[in-house]
Design brief:
Distance between the termini: 37 Å
Strand order of the largest sheet: 1-2-3-5-4-6-7-8-9
Number of helices: 11
Number of strands: 9
Radius of gyration: 19 Å
Structural class: alpha/beta
Helix content: 25-40%
Number of domains: 1
Strand content: 15-25%
Largest sheet: 9 strands, mixed
CATH architecture: 3-Layer(aba) Sandwich
CATH topology: Rossmann fold
CATH superfamily: Alpha/Beta hydrolase fold, catalytic domain
Mean pLDDT: 88
Low-confidence stretches: 1-33
Shape: globular
Length: 329
């Protein structure tokens, strides 16, 4: 698979096809960065592996009671971080789902080039193969509480260990595919945390088309991460949890934020599954945009040729817009 065109073939194979999946769920003075505390610092995290040798990309792996294995995080620093003495805004950037994506996805894709010379820290955490940036209703493999890890543990750890602005105007959240959903979800549920939210081919509606995206979240998580457990519950959903996570049901929570949306409009000539996936993304984003427009909430959106993949030009445009919206370094 090309790094420029991530897919979810592996999910489809593991889940046994879309029909089977549906059945499962009918971050002036010379100032260097102080290395992060090896023991963690009170946020429920303990560093078990790290690499701070690279000038910009620092890597950590944590032990946390929120996740039953040790999730990794990449922290990409601005070029001048080690000598500027300044504080910087932070972008939390979330990867998509599937066995081919994790916290190094955006390093493979080119995030160093997208941010070269730009005054922003980018935090790229693990989110599971199909964690859906959620605390699942059930798990048969131990804790997989990604939402708790990201919001209650990782975010304060980043702000304690790096020179950031620990405030609303100092943070943005963005993601691709499943990560785009996670970005939309976190921006709404944790309104005071993020001033900018971006979804690159990220679904915005869990309930449309008889709950296709919600069922897919259940099916993919059951197959890849939870050994039959689910994000939202099966055979019956935890309806309150779905409503709390569903972007189209949280429209007022996007007011006074920068909102950036990207979706593809064309079939993928090679991968029929990505075509179906992006078709659902596009429909959900159109529903979301309509509701934002009716509420008078400004948003920036793009419908572009192609299927379900990371569009580098849109990432660059988005990062420039994020820097323009957030507090300046």
């Amino acid at each position: 698979m090309s790094a420029q065109h991530p897919t979810r073939r592996s999910i489809l194979k593991t889940a046994g096809g879309l029909s089977a999946a549906m059945a499962l769920g009918a971050g002036g003075v010379l100032g260097t960065a102080a290395p992060a505390s090896a023991a963690g610092d009170g946020f429920g995290l303990r560093i078990v592996d790290r690499n701070e040798a690279d000038h910009r990309m620092w890597y950590y792996r944590f032990q946390t009671d929120a996740i039953g294995w040790n999730p990794g995080v990449n922290v990409l620093l601005p070029d001048d971080y080690h000598w500027s003495g300044r504080r910087y805004p932070v972008l939390y950037l979330f990867h998509g789902g599937g066995t081919d994506q994790d916290f190094i996805t955006f390093d493979r894709e080119g995030v160093r080039d997208w941010t070269a010379g730009k005054p922003i820290i980018v935090v790229m955490p693990d989110g599971g193969h199909a964690g859906w940036y959620s605390n699942p209703v059930s798990s048969n493999v131990g804790p997989r509480n990604w939402e708790h890890f990201h919001i209650a543990q990782l975010l304060p750890w980043v702000e304690a260990n790096f020179r950031t602005y620990a405030e609303y105007d100092g943070r943005a959240v963005a993601g691709f595919s499943m990560g785009g959903f996670g970005a939309l979800k976190y921006a709404a549920k944790y309104y005071g945390h993020f001033a900018s939210v971006s979804a690159h081919s990220g679904p915005a509606s869990l309930r449309r088309d008889n709950g296709l995206v919600g069922h897919w979240a259940n099916a993919s998580s059951a197959a890849l991460d939870l050994n039959g457990g689910t994000i939202y519950g099966a055979p019956f959903w935890d309806e309150a949890r779905v409503s709390a996570d569903n972007p189209v049901q949280r429209i007022e929570s996007y007011r006074h934020k920068r909102v950036f949306l990207v979706a593809g409009t064309s079939p993928d000539p090679i991968n029929w599954f990505d075509t179906a996936n992006e078709t659902q993304v596009l429909a959900g984003q159109r529903e979301f945009r309509s509701l934002l427009g009716n509420a008078g909430i400004p948003h920036e959106w793009y419908e572009l040729p192609g299927g379900h993949f990371i569009r580098h030009d849109m990432m660059r445009r988005d990062i420039d817009g994020i820097i323009g919206r957030l507090r300046k370094a």
